[in-house]
Amino acid sequence: MHRKNHAAAAARTALVAAIAAAFPLFTPGAFAAPEPAEPAQKPWLDASLDADQRARLAVQAMTQQEKLRWVFGYFGHDFGKSKKHPEALPQSAGYIPGTPRLGLPALFETDAGQGVASQSGPNVRERTALPSGLSTASTWDPKLAYAGGAMIGSEARASGFNVMLAGGVNLQREPRNGRNFEYAGEDPLLAGTMIGQAIKGVESNRIISTLKHFVLNDQETGRNELDARIDKAALRMSDLLAMELALEQSDAGSVMCAYNRLNGPYTCEHPWLLTEVLKRDWGFKGYVMSDWGATHSTVAAANSGLDQQSGQEFDKSPYFGGALQEAVKTGAVPQKRLDDMVTRIVRTMFAKGVVDNPLKPGAAIDFAANGAVSRQTAEEGMVLLKNEGRILPLAKTVRTIAVIGGHADAGVLSGGGSSQVYPVGGIAVKGLLPATWPGPVVYYPSSPLRAIQAQAPNAKVVFDDGRDPARAARVAAGADVALVFANQWIGEANDAQTLALPDGQEELIASVAGANGRTVVVLQTGGPVTMPWLARVPAVLEAWYPGTSGGEAIANVLFGAVNPSGHLPATFPQSEQQLPRPKLDGDPKNPELQFAVDYHEGAAVGYKWFDLKGHKPLFPFGHGLSYTTFAYSGLSGQVKDGRLHVRFKVTNTGNVAGKDVPQVYASPLATKWEAPKRLAAWSKVALQPGETKEVEVAVEPRLLAMFDEKSRTWRRPKGKIRLTLAEDASAANATSVTVDLPASTLDARGRAR
User: Fold this and answer.
1) Against a cut of 0.85, is the pTM above it?
2) What is the pLDDT of residue 45?
3) What residues contact residue 591 under an 8 Å CB cut-off, 6+ apart?
4) Which of 45, 521, 529, 695 is deepest in the core (most CB within 10 A)?
């Protein structure tokens, strides 16, 4: 959601108020007509009917004013100031009034994908924070994604919310994107699967979740002005495929359209995107809400497929207020279209259980149990990038440990913006900048230092804040091992301008590594970073933003209480020069400047781009080390029931239990794709020492085809496909097999024709 330019938003609010006084017909106040009597019978409340029937009956019973209320959303709070609507919950994202006489409750909306969010100011809610979306994606475990979604969804319901603005699945085309931490990496299959399961978990609480941001909202710089330009077929095979897969797995109740333009039109008034792709080709039955400040018109937006204007105070005008009422009256927006908008919203409320399971705010929250869900996700999402000489795990008998930098004495870092969860116990580090949007910078009070001390109670553990590299080096020189915590804070509306670690941390790492040859770097970042110091340190652990219980999770991995099993959901480049756009498009100093971003790489996102160009990354997609070793054997593939199935064996060849993520990549031998290979399937396998398991995975047919926009079909010619079983996208030490596949044509939803 959009939370910048508060002064501009306030000015627009004042303008709306002035217009309201002069032209009441064209404002939300026009909806305040006398309420008709409550009907004697309410057949739409009969739970034995299906959601479509119930929605049609409910909408037929509505007055025009009641219909218009459903498509017009208010902002929930004003950054600690007055609420925008008297019934909205403070510290909330939005509010849509219900229709009490028909038994239809209001919609109370909360951010976001890491938990029930609160901004700064009064009335903040202390809630459990999941690790970042990238951390969850790094687990490669759909069950963990579901569990995390179910946990934050339960806290949303207990907090009085029935809509959660989770489900961010924008592909990582731009590693500097300030919101990458909310998302799930660069691959459509991985991102779509993990976010789909997270949404499914949220909605298991009988509330609505969104799928967002639809589509190509892939950088924050100029997000309201940029025109994302891309070939339609390439978009179908990349970002749209990720969202399509997530939608199929989750049946998300709502889709949130994005800020940016797409090949010209804004995404929230884009008929090809909203009506043709989403509602026609994919058969989406839910409703499309705008992002906050992403609505730009009345007639064009409504007729193109937008169903609900969100946070109207952030737009230049209350487009779906009196203006929509007038447009329907004149026929510029057909009455049938307004009825469809409302039907979609109400149908979703019935389908997701919102109507039949009223909110009961104030329910007790088991913070200990929820913190354990967050901790397990963090533990399995941490990626051991390097472990030279097996310096990790640390022995419990270690005598002296130097812990340096990153506020590791106090807590763990989180990302900024609308997804910010206010931690149980309060903010651990005070006075950091920026103090206002997209800040405040928040450290959760889960101290890695204290957790390390608990893991090694007989060791001398010394902390240095890292502000003076020379002093930190002296502290490190006297220790058996040095742990350097290096952080990168990013957030909504705040792209990283470079992939280098900020604030002199590269110098700090080099100084400490020069003083102690047993230096371990623990990274807390919102995405990939460059590492000019990598050759000088024997071990690197990527902890991402590790959530409520992150300090304990980091210590558990460092000491081997948990064997790391995370694998990268995104490529780490050696430098920005390897990216499709070495320089970030747009000018953060001129936010009103319109510009275009040419996504010339098309569907070759992330590792596919690196394969296509022959670039060697710093760390490849899918990379992740363990404290044990694994071997693969018995790879085979065959078509069963029209779908390619792949079988293989995984063996733990080490001496400790661990989890592996064998990855299957497909490469065409009879035709050309956007890149040499695609991730086709994977499995996460837990194995005891010496244990072997046989695994079978099915390949999504669309991943073996090319999309044809003219016919709106996925097409695969007859021919050979090479299947490669590998530990990461570099395909080092991999095994492969070739299979013959028949020709195939699938419709836009991947169904055989």
Assistant:
1) yes
2) 98
3) 222, 224, 225
4) 521
Please tell me the distance from the alpha carbon of residue 616 to that of residue 536, in angstroms, as a whole number: 20
SS3 label, residue 645: strand
What is the pLDDT, as a whole number, of residue 361? 85
Q: What is the DSSP string of 389-414?
A: GG--SPPTT--EEEEESTTTTT-EE-
SS3 category, 611:
helix
CB-based contact 373:151 (threshold 8 Å): yes
* Two tokens, residue 194: 């993990």
pLDDT digits (tens, 9 = 90+) for 729-752: 998 889 999 999 999 999 999 999
Which residues share a beta bridge with 684?
none
HEC profile of 291-321? CCCCCCCCHHHHHHCCCEECCHHHCCCCCCC
Residues in the chain with pLDDT values less than 50: 1-31
Q: Contact at 8 Å (CB) between 211 and 247?
A: yes
The residue whose two tokens read 């010209």 is 264
pLDDT of residue 342: 98
**Cα separations in angstroms, 232 against 185, 257, 598, 605, 709:** 21, 17, 13, 15, 7
Whether the Cβ atoms of residue 215 and residue 262 lie closer than 8 Å to each other: yes
**C-beta of residue 74 within 8 angstroms of C-beta of residue 109:** no
Q: Phi and psi of 449, rounded to 5°?
A: -60, -50
φ, ψ of residue 744 to 5 degrees: the values are -150, 140
Q: In sequence order, what are the residues at sequence separation of 6 or more whose Cβ sits closer than 8 angstroms to the Cβ of residue 17?
A: none
Sign of CA dihedral 369, 374, 377, 383: negative
| Amino acid making up residue 64 | Q
Q: What's the pLDDT tens digit per position in 68-101?
A: 999 999 998 755 555 578 899 989 999 999 999 9
Q: Where are the beta strands (DSSP E) in 445-595?
A: 460-464, 481-487, 519-524, 539-542
CB burial string 240-253: b at 16+ within 10 A, e below: bbbbbbbbbbbbbb
For the chain, give the number of residues.
753
Task: Give me the active site residues, please.
Answer: 291
Other CB atoms within a 10 A radius of the CB of residue 374 amount to 30
Q: Which of 254, 252, 276, 262 is nearest to 201 (CA)?
A: 252
Q: Which two tokens stand for residue 179?
A: 């919101």
Quote the CA–CA distance of 552 and 281 in Å, as a whole number: 46
d(CA 285, CA 278): 9
Instruction: Give bridge partners of residue 541 from the DSSP assignment.
Output: 384, 522
Place of tokens 């475990």: 141
Q: Which of these, 676, 744, 745, lies nearest to 710 by C-alpha position?
A: 745
pLDDT at 78: 58
Query: How far is residue 273 CA from its own chain's centroid?
Result: 20
How far from chain centre, in Å, is Cα 316? Answer: 28
Distance from C-alpha of 60 to C-alpha of 37, rounded to nearest angstrom: 15
Tell me the C-alpha distance between 660 and 625, whole Å.
9
Collapsing DSSP states into helix, strand and coil, what is residue 510?
helix
CB neighbour class for 41 (10 Å; exposed up to 12, middle 13-18, buried from 19): exposed
Longest dimension (CA), the chain: 81
Structure tokens at 504: 């002199």
Query: What distance in Å separates the CA atoms of residue 375 and residue 385, rounded to the nearest whole number?
Result: 20
Class of residue 407 by CB neighbours under 10 A (exposed 0-12, middle 13-18, buried 19+)? buried
Distance CA 359, CA 96 (A): 15
Q: Nearest-5° angle of CA 508, CA 511, CA 516?
A: 120
